[in-house]
Write a structure and sequence with these properties.
Largest sheet: 2 strands, antiparallel
Order of helices and strands: HEEHH
Distance between the termini: 40 Å
CATH architecture: 3-Layer(aba) Sandwich
Radius of gyration: 16 Å
Structural class: alpha+beta
Number of domains: 1
Shape: elongated
CATH class: Alpha Beta
Number of helices: 3
């Protein structure tokens, strides 16, 4: 396994922590082959998670039904 494959595996593990069920993204910051930071997407603080918003927001429900 090369370094790129190793880091990609870590990105995938970090993405699994995302609370966004429509698109889970993970990222890592690497400097000199050392992981400096990790992160994943999700709603801003105080905003409900995607699954909760979809249950309550009629516009999102309407848009999903039209697809």
């Amino acid at each position: 396994m090369n370094w790129d494959e190793y880091y990609l595996g870590i990105c995938n593990a970090v993405a699994a922590k995302s609370h966004c069920h429509s698109r889970q993204l993970g990222a890592i910051l690497v400097i000199d082959k050392r992981i400096i930071s990790t992160g994943y997407n999700g709603p801003p603080a105080g905003v409900p998670e995607c699954r909760d918003r979809m249950k309550r927001d009629p516009e999102i429900i309407k848009m999903l039904k039209e697809k």
